[in-house]
Amino acid sequence: MSRIAASFQLGSALIACLLVAAPAIAAPPADDFTPSNDELDQDLDESLRDEYAEPEPKTAPVPPVPPPSDSNDAKGIRLRLGGMAAYGLTNFHDIEISHRKGTRGGDTIVLDGDDGDQNSAFDFENGSGYYRTWFDIGSWVSLQAAYSHVKFKDINALSSAEGGTPGFVFGDTTYQTGSVVEIAQTLRIADFDIALHPLHLDWIRLDVTLGARYVYWQTTIDRLSPGGFARERERLEALIPMIGFGISLRPVKPFEIFLRGRIGSIEVERKAGSYRRRNGKREQIKPFKREQSSVELDGGFSFTFDETIGLIIGARIDVIEINRQTEDQQTRFKGTSSTLYAGVILNF
Q1: pLDDT in tens, the chain (348 residues)
Q2: Coil, strand or helix: which one is 121?
Q3: Beta strands 128-137 and 79-101: pairing type?
């Protein structure tokens, strides 16, 4: 009996072993994995690239772009052209004119004198024009030019004085007491300057100018009655060296307040007794004397939008005196011109 039980246990163990090993015996053998040639080439290329490729250069970080600056240092040497055109209302004051030919004439005619007469009432006939242009070379040097012109004419300007027109002689013509006369004045001024700016900041600028002024002054006196029509016309021209100073304040960027002044004088005299040779002949030089001076004062304010186009309003005073004297004649003009003007500014 015991032998039968032992045989049964041995058989059961054999069956269990067969059941465990059966799946492994029944499963087919697994195939070996073989990669393709393309895959092998790709793996080889990547290995060689990783081994021998040069490292990419490190790029420096791009610095941030600084914001635009309005300082003069940031602008550097910049060339800029600008101009102004204005229309003005001009009047003459304290006019003194005289004209002598030989021994005739030379009487001084005073218009708008200090004697309280009403002969200062020149009627406004033509508007005055005032033009300026400038060429900035950087922030420290500018070339400047200006031109102005005005004309006055008044019929019977002298007869408003008490007692009527006083008698006088102008050139070759005698104007009797009570004569009806018409007096016309024409004044033209051209200025040329080099301006230096020793101080130039965003809110203030100082100017020092050196240049010349050309003055054209013409007087025409017509006698209408009595005695028939007669006309005397005389003009003087002068070239005067000028020096000036100016200041411009800009409390806020579009708004500017300016004040500038210029002054100049020159005297040329040639005395009698000297000689010179002309065409092989010795001739005596005639005496000659010329005195000319001028003062200018100009001030106002302007609004400029985006530093390109703007408006300007100002006042200007010009004092001029010219005296020319030779053996044959002498002519003298003296007077003050005052102008209120308004115009436009344009910068390129």
Answers
A1: 555 555 556 666 656 555 555 555 545 555 555 666 677 677 777 776 666 666 666 666 666 766 555 444 444 578 999 999 999 988 888 888 999 988 887 888 887 644 444 444 444 445 799 999 999 998 899 999 999 999 887 775 565 444 556 788 898 888 887 778 888 889 999 999 999 999 999 899 999 999 999 999 999 998 887 778 889 999 999 999 999 999 999 999 889 999 999 999 999 988 776 777 777 777 777 788 999 999 999 999 999 998 899 999 999 999 999 999 988 889 999 999 999 999 999 998
A2: coil
A3: antiparallel
- Residue 84 exposed, middle or buried by CB count within 10 Å (0-12, 13-18, 19+): buried
Q: How far is CA 246 from CA 200, 306, 332, 337, 344, in A?
A: 12, 23, 30, 20, 20
d(CA 20, CA 17): 5
Identify the three-state secondary structure at position 235: strand
**307 — alpha (psi -120 to 50), left (phi > 0) or beta?**
left
- Give, as one character, the DSSP assignment of residue 32: P
pTM: 0.73
Q: How many residues does the chain have?
A: 348
Please enumerate in sequence order all residues whose Cβ is within 8 A of that of 123, keeping only pairs 6 or more positions apart, or say none.
152, 153, 154
> Measuring CA to CA, which residue among 337, 84, 325, 342 is closest to residue 186?
337
Place of tokens 């007669």: 230
- Interstrand relation of 204-225 and 180-200 (parallel, antiparallel or unpaired): antiparallel
User: What domains lie within the chain, and their CATH numbers?
Assistant: 79-347 (2.40.128)
Residue pair 317/337 in contact (Cβ under 8 Å)? The answer is: yes
36 DSSP assignment: -
83 touches 309 (CB < 8 A): no
Contact assessment for residue 309 and residue 332, using Cβ atoms and an 8 Å cutoff? no
CA atoms of 62 and 66, how far apart (whole Å): 12
Residues contacting 25, CB < 8 A, separation 6+? none
